[in-house]
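Quick entry between incubations.
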Amino acid sequence: MSRDGVLSSLLQGRGSWASGEEIAANLGVTRAAVWKQIRLLRASGYEIEASPGKGYRLVVQPDSLRPEAIYCGLGTEFVGKVIHYRPVVGSTNDVARKMARGAEEGTVILAEVQTEGRGRMGRRWQSPPGGVWMSVILKPDIPPALASRINIAVGLAVARTLSHLYGLEAGIKWPNDLTVRDKKICGILTEMRAEIDRLDYVVVGIGINANMDPDRLDVEGEITSISRELGGEISRTELVQKLLWDIEKAYIEVNSSFPKAHAEWSARSSTLGRRVRIVSQRNEFEGTAVELDRYGALRIRRDDGEIVRVLAGDCVHLRPAEKEEEEGASATSG
Amino acid sequence: MSRDGVLSSLLQGRGSWASGEEIAANLGVTRAAVWKQIRLLRASGYEIEASPGKGYRLVVQPDSLRPEAIYCGLGTEFVGKVIHYRPVVGSTNDVARKMARGAEEGTVILAEVQTEGRGRMGRRWQSPPGGVWMSVILKPDIPPALASRINIAVGLAVARTLSHLYGLEAGIKWPNDLTVRDKKICGILTEMRAEIDRLDYVVVGIGINANMDPDRLDVEGEITSISRELGGEISRTELVQKLLWDIEKAYIEVNSSFPKAHAEWSARSSTLGRRVRIVSQRNEFEGTAVELDRYGALRIRRDDGEIVRVLAGDCVHLRPAEKEEEEGASATSG
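Done. Structure below.
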C-alpha cells in the first residue's frame, strides 16, 4: 500500500473525521498499516489530527503537486485524469514524449523540480522548487500545419487561469510566453511527432513561476512569479486544477470554434499592435505586429509597408504600442 | 577487417586488376585476410577473377544495396554520405528515427527486407526482397507547417529518377504515392519531430517496388514494379545512386525556389485535374482536384462550386480527367 490510498481517503473527507477502521477496511489493509502511512504523511508536511474515538482528519495539507490532492475536485473530462508525479525529473516533456504513444490523451506529468528543463530551441529553463513544471499529452485529430492551435489553446488557458484565480492579467507574447508587466511568468514548449498530414501526438510543456523568488534565478531577461506579483504564496494544487480545466476547455474551443479562440488570443496578446524586432536564423528586421494568422504565423508590417509572415523566430517587444494597438486587438482569423 | 574494405578496393578498380599485396597494404591487413574476404564476397554472389600474376578483379557484382557499392560513384554532397545497411529490419523509418537526433543530415538507412514496413496511418507496407526500402534523415531549417515541401521534393525526385533511368513517367498521386498506369510503384512516408515553429528532423521513408513480381504481394489496390513495367530486372545500386542524387537536388530546390518545384510537381501530378473522392476521418466528398497550395493542401472544387482545402486524408482517383486537366497542370503556388 502507498500513502496515496490513505491520503485520498482523508482528502475525500474534506476535513471531517474518518475512522482508521473504515480507512483500513476500504483499502484492504491493517489499521497498523494505516497508522504507519499517517506518520509518513505527517513527515511530508500534512497536518493530520488523530482522535481515539473519531479517527483521523486532515487539517492542513502542504503545497504539493501530488496527484491525489489534484484529482480531488478536478472537474475535467480527460485532461489530468492520469497524472504521473515525479519529485525530480530531467524534463517533464522528455518523460511525456517517452510514454506518449501508449498514453491516454490528457495524461499529465508533474514535477517539483526539473534538472534539465528546456525552453524553445533547446534553451535552458530553470525549474527550481515552488514552480509548476508540467507536461500534457494531447492527440488532436488535426494535421501538423495546424498544430499551432494547441499553442494558442494553452496560451489562452494559462492567461485565463491567472486572471480568474489571481486577477493577474497576463499578456500572451508570441509565440509562447506569458508576461505580467512585461516580465515572463510562464513559458510553453510544444513538441510533436507527426506524419506529414497527421499528428501522432503533441506534448505541451508548461512552466509557471508560481511560488518562487525571481531574483534568485540566473535568467536572461526580466521574469516574475505569481507569489512576487501577489505578495504571497498560492496553492499550487488549486493552480494546477484550474489550469487543467482551462486547458481542456480551450483545447476543445480551438478545435470546434477557432475564430472565437483566435479573437480572444488576439485580445490577450501583448505582441499585436506592438513594435517588434524579429530575430530568426535567417534574418532580423523590425516592424509592427498586426495579426496572428490561422497557422499561428505573425504578420508584421515593415516600415516600407510590406506585410511579412513570420512562422518561426524570436520576437523582441520594442517600445510600447500607441495608435496601432486597436488594429491588432481587432484582428481576426485570415 | 570487414569485407567492405576489400570490396571497396575492387569497386574503385572498376573492373581492372588490383594486386592482393596492394589491397592488403592499403587496408593494413595480411594477404591471407584479403583472400578470406574474397571468398566471402564470392559466397555473396560477387564474381571475382583471381590471377596469380595480376591479383583480383571484380567481374560481376550482385544486385545489392551494400553501401560500398552505392558510395562508389555517388555524386551527392550530403545525401547518402553515410548509409546504414541492414539485410533485415523492422522498419527503416523506425531505425532512422532512433538515430535521427545525433545523425548527420542526409544519413540513409537501407534494407533488403522490412518485416514491419509501414505506410501512412500505420498501414502495413509489404517489403519483400528485390525492393528498395530506404529512409533518409533530413534537417531542414523550416517550420513544421512547411514540412510538406519535403514530401513534394521526394515525390519529384522519385518521378525524375524513374523517368531518367527507365523512361517510366510516374504520376504523383497526392499526397504520397507514385503510380505508373495508375498502379502504385512507390510510396513515401514522411515523419517528423518538431517544436511548433522548428523541425528537429524529418525522416522520409521511400518504398520502391523495384525487382519484384507484384502479383505475389497480397495488397489492396493495384500495384506494379519497375521490373514488371520494363520486362526485366534493373540495378538497384544504380537506382539508389540516382535517387539519392535527385533527392538532394529536389530538396535544395524546394527550399531555394519553391514555385519552380511546385510547378513541376503540379505537372507531374496524376491527381490535379482529376475527379476525386476525399475520405478522411471526419467526412467524405467528391470533387475535382484543382491545385496544390503552398502548404501541401489539395484544393478541391466540389460540385456546388465551393473550393475546399484538404490537408489530410485519402484521395481516391475516380474517372480520368477530361477538360479540366489543363487547369490543374497549369496551377501555380497560391
